Amino acid sequence: MIYFDNAATTMLKPPSVAQAVAQAINSFGGVGRGVHEASLSADVAVYKCRQALAQLFDAPDPRRVTFGLNATEALNTLIGGLLQEGDHAITTAASHNSVLRPLYRKQDREGVELSILPVAPDAHIDLGAYERLFKPNTKLAVVTHASNLTGDVYDVAAMARIAHEHGALFAIDAAQTAGLVPIDMQADGIDAVAFTGHKSLYGPQGTGGLALMPEVDLPSFKVGGSGTHSYDRLHPSFYPEHLEAGTLNGHGIAGLLAGVEYIQDTGVAAIGRRTSELAERFEAGVRAIPGVRVYGGHGGVGRTGIVALNIGDIDSAQVSDALNYEYGICTRAGAHCAPLMHRALGTDRQGAVRFSFSHLNAEDEVDAGIRAIADIAAGFDGNE
């Protein structure tokens, strides 16, 4: 098997991640649920992970790194908590449904105003047009840091500056970039980062959360057991407990900590550079194949490890199935939970075949992917 679906979840992970999870399963008690050795061991791992993520994102307070299931839950917490009737929000057509659907729900149920910045066919966004969307009641601009369809990385520092000049908060969906592209909340003016653990942070599935600047305050998204202040009628108002309820996924967070420590040891820049090199190698190879169309990849200020393509008019699912069953290559086809981006690219009917590379992939795997696309394209007669 050759795994090129890292934008969905990284399957190849540092060995230390599985080792940390196995050790945690055999030694952890409940996080924040006791003062015995097993519980305290879990507490220490969770706190170390908060610290490591705060360092990775340059978040000033580890207590404001809160854990949940994934970036989708984090974005629901953020959008659902911040926006109220009378507010205006901005996003872009590059956004994943994890941003769009919480915004649509606010729009439909509470009358929140919503503006969506278009994306050009080359995946580029116009910062001048973005600035013109702001209104006196704009409360939040929430954007994807990088497209999960094309891999284009957007200039979030410039977007944050514009948002702050208009008195709005600025948040990013970092599902595709955390651990792969540098994120500096303080230097870039990012008020909130929604992250997932199971992609380029190399943690297990079921891990993720929010990193918040001190000026961002949210209502509790879920309430219940907190491990402290149990006689209080209301959920704790202090962080991180304010946004966490129930027993945390200590086993998963232990694995996430191992993933983040691997990133810190290896370096985000080195990981990103290697990943981009593999994507560029693949893109150069497939662009030379007749009938192949590549989408985006050069419309932002950088790129992740994603290359999206189609072959002629073949349905993207048919190509992805052939890659899997005939060549043992794992990719993702279809809409990728990014409907507006597909409409911008003109691929909403055909979908696209998404190759997404990890720095742990090898050049010979990339070259095998190029040969497979060439074989499939050669067998396409244009009438299928």
- Work out the helicity level: 25-40%
The percentage of residues in β strands lies in: 15-25%
- State the major sheet: 7 strands, mixed
The total tally of domains equals 2
How many helices in DSSP terms?
12
What's the structural blueprint in terms of helices and strands?
Layout: E1 2-3, H1 15-25, H2 37-57, E2 65-68, H3 71-82, E3 88-92, H4 97-110, E4 113-117, H5 127-132, E5 138-144, E6 152-153, H6 156-165, E7 169-173, H7 185-188, E8 192-196, E9 208-212, H8 250-266, H9 268-287, E10 292-295, E11 302-303, E12 306-311, H10 316-327, E13 329-330, H11 339-345, E14 353-356, H12 363-378
Parallel strand pairs: 1-13, 3-4, 3-5, 5-7, 7-8
Antiparallel strand pairs: 2-9, 6-11, 8-9, 10-12, 12-14
Can you describe what's shown?
The protein is α/β, with parallel strands linked by helices. It has two domains: 2-10 and 268-378, Aspartate Aminotransferase, domain 1; 15-266, Type I PLP-dependent aspartate aminotransferase-like (Major domain) (Aspartate Aminotransferase, domain 2), CATH 3.40.640. The protein is built from twelve helices and 14 strands. The protein has helices at 15-25, 37-57, 71-82, 97-110, 127-132, 156-165, 185-188, 250-266, 268-287, 316-327, 339-345, 363-378, and strands at 2-3, 65-68, 88-92, 113-117, 138-144, 152-153, 169-173, 192-196, 208-212, 292-295, 302-303, 306-311, 329-330, 353-356. The strands form four sheets. Strands 2-9-8-7-5-3-4 form a seven-stranded mixed β-sheet, sandwiched between helices. Strands 10-12-14 form a three-stranded antiparallel β-sheet. Helix 1 packs antiparallel against helix 8 and helix 10 (316-327) packs across helix 12 (363-378). The longest helix has 21 residues, at 37-57. It is globular and about 70 Å long. The relative contact order is 0.17. The mean pLDDT is 95.
